[in-house]
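RECORD TYPE: inverse folding
INPUT: structure tokens
STRUCTURE:
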């Protein structure tokens, strides 16, 4: 850490013990990472940030509708394509499930990016959760996902309630279905990650 004689490092106005090179883009006040507020272009001090609210945080009804419905639709579309994508992914990558899961994660990032674009690139926390919930609901409204979850639940409940049924075939089925549903989790994780950035 350089000392105060370095002209590029000055004490932060709010935290004098912290040296910083950052300045408010509006009033030129020295600010440190602890007190800076991120804006569309650059950073502002808390005082200037209160004067002019961040437009990325201002969400109107059209943004809520676009974010919610686009996420619901994209989640539903993925729910229908999920079995095909996982089967093709496993086939393409010679049965390596981790690569198939990475494929669905990348697809989730693309879908999340599209939903984010349709909602005007807003960064409101409530909008992020609405979009993520919409993607989950959409995926579970699709019949293939419902079927996979239902079959997995049936096999698990039968295996737990009747120990005589448990065997290699049911264990392999549960593992296989678990890997397929891991693809859904990867899709949703990628979707949320892309929508937040």
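DESIGNED SEQUENCE:
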């Amino acid at each position: 850490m350089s000392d105060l004689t370095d002209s590029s490092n000055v004490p932060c106005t709010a935290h004098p013990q912290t040296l910083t090179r950052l300045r408010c883009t509006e009033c030129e006040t020295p600010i440190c990472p602890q007190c800076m507020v991120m804006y569309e272009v650059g950073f502002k001090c808390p005082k200037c940030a209160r004067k002019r609210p961040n437009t990325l945080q201002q969400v109107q009804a059209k943004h809520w509708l676009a974010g919610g419905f686009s996420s619901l639709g994209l989640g539903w579309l993925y729910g229908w394509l999920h079995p095909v994508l996982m089967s093709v992914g496993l086939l393409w990558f010679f049965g390596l499930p981790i690569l198939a899961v990475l494929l669905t994660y990348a697809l989730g990032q693309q879908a999340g990016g599209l939903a984010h674009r349709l909602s005007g690139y807003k960064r409101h926390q409530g909008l992020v959760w609405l979009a993520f919930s919409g993607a989950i609901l959409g995926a579970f409204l699709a019949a293939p996902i419902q079927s996979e979850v239902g079959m997995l639940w049936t096999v698990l409940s039968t295996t737990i309630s009747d120990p005589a049924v448990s065997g290699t075939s049911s264990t392999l089925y549960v593992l296989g279905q678990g890997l397929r549903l891991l693809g859904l989790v990867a899709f949703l994780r990628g979707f949320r990650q892309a929508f937040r950035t």
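NOTES: Strands lie at 10-11, 19-20, 37-38, 43-44.
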